[in-house]
Specification:
single chain; mainly alpha; Arc Repressor Mutant, subunit A; transcription
Length: 169
């Protein structure tokens, strides 16, 4: 194994730029080409490849290019590469698992069914229909004060029903 840093530096100076250009031509990916050059130089270090003599220089260069080409081929054939999908932009955000949302919705529906029909109607129209007190009063034909009262007692009953089902504040 070659341990002399000067020999390894010279090998890098002599071949890294040409090797990088070669890999860029193969892959059209500058960052990936840099990774391949780095891995190739690491393998050269492990194998003890040097340019100590003029006759060895040609064989070292050929060895480096062969290793780089094989690394590119191996990466193209890898399972990781086949499963990766290149996206133009990152997704907006993590959506996460929707299981909790489904269970929460079922829990709320169950709690809403425990309310009296007048209280449930006002709560559902206000929170799910986004209707104002005036709109709800006009729709169901009761005074706005009655809507406010039903909303207050309906929300209180809903809070109690959710607490009974294990939902705490």
């Amino acid at each position: 194994m070659v341990t002399d840093p000067e020999v390894l530096d010279q090998l890098h100076r002599d071949h890294a730029n040409a090797l990088w250009a070669y890999v860029v031509r193969l892959t059209n990916d500058r960052a990936f080409a840099q990774d391949i050059v780095q891995e190739t130089m690491l393998r050269a270090w492990r194998e003890g490849i040097t340019d100590a003599s003029d006759t060895n220089a040609t064989s070292a260069r050929a060895w480096l290019f062969t290793v780089a080409r094989r690394l590119v081929i191996d990466e193209a054939r890898s399972a990781r590469r086949r499963r990766e999908v290149v996206a133009e932009a990152l997704p907006d955000g993590h959506t996460g698992d929707q299981v909790d949302a489904v269970f929460d919705a079922a829990l709320i529906v169950d709690a809403l069914t425990s309310l009296s029909p007048p209280h449930r109607e006002v709560v559902v129209r206000a929170y799910y229909g986004r209707a104002t007190v005036t709109e709800i009063a006009a729709d169901i034909g009761v005074p706005p004060g009655t809507v406010k009262s039903r909303m207050h007692y309906g929300m209180r009953a809903l809070r109690l029903a959710l607490q009974e089902r294990g939902v705490t504040r």
